[in-house]
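Lecture 7 notes: from sequence to structure.
We start with the chain below.
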Amino acid sequence: MSEFIYQSAISTVASLMKVAAIFNSKIRLGVEGRNGLLEAMEDSFPKLVNGRAVAWFHAASLGEFEQGRPVIEAYRTHFPDDFILLTFFSPSGYEVRKNYTGADYICYLPIDTASNARRFVKIVNPRIAFFIKYEFWHNYLKALKKNETYIISFSTIFRPNQAFFKKSGSFFRQMLIAFDHIFVQNKQSLQLLESAGIHQCSIAGDTRFDRVAAIASNTKSFPEIAGFRNGQVCLIAGSVWEADMQVLIPALNSYEGKLKAIIAPHEIHKEQMEQWRKSLTGKTLLYSELASENNISAFDYLIIDNIGMLSALYQYGNMAFIGGAFGSGLHNILEAATFGIPVAFGNKRYHKFQEALDLTEQGGAVAVAGREELIATIGQWLNDPEKRKMAGAVNKNYIAAGIGSTDMILNEVKKLQS
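Predicted structure tokens for the same chain:
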């Protein structure tokens, strides 16, 4: 790819987003959230900063934000006088975390055109910029380098088939050269970078381990959830989509009366949840209905019709099924693993997630091909409590061994800024 092709592609994407916004409500949120943003920032941002050093954190979406959150909060502790800017690319991140109190200013990232990047960096003038996991934007990196900003990438993971490591990938490798330091998750990523001539890198692991460990040690309790569970064996279905429920519903129906389940959709769609209720043979209740129900322990299934509770719900589970792998990609299994419960997920799209590969190999997780395998897996965990506990212990120990990434990153940041 050349400079010209990249700039043309970005401009085309920006135009197509405006057209797609007419038909797609999620894209429309992103387009509307960016309208007039730079003009508003030019007027208000310098006044808000008031001469303080700016630390900019960028996350693509909600998952990357949760990955970056330990570093944001550790940075605040170590550099309390700095102004923290948090940006998102996707509405699924911004709309959920736009009121996050750990940052001083939260907004969408303007599309990576050359003019947007120059203008944004001039307004923000960050001393340091953090890009979480997969974020590589050519024009922003170019503008930040010219601004003499320290640039960090963390919790990053690379694979041999990525454009950075192809013979024709010199344009993409130039992006990597812009970083002052790249903290990768594993040895393979480090070796790939070094083979491409990128040496300002080191292994720091995945900051999500720090995040989920913190969640587990400071979890909010929900007495109403405990009342629903009523001491019975309970499965937590986290971040599930329709494709996941096509597999999960028959499995739950197979164990009606023997197993309770809490179901947390990845996105809230009332019609879809109502259809799930009709397909489940046991008694089903929505979380929003809990307050009006006198005998909540009589219900078999609880569907969470809100966003934001999931990470704390795993404390009430004996096992978990995590969604996404039958669709676009597996969601966060570490949030469940940290509570010491075994995890199941689809076997279609989980191979890009190191923790899923590790835990399936170690016995803490199972990748299932469909409903029959899920029925068998749940049956094993349900009927053999000792086997279930052993698998959960594998997961808990795995989390404990992965803690410490945030401290490694902050130590390097201190060196850069000293």
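Points to note: The chain has two domains: 3-214+403-417, 218-402. The radius of gyration is 23 Å.
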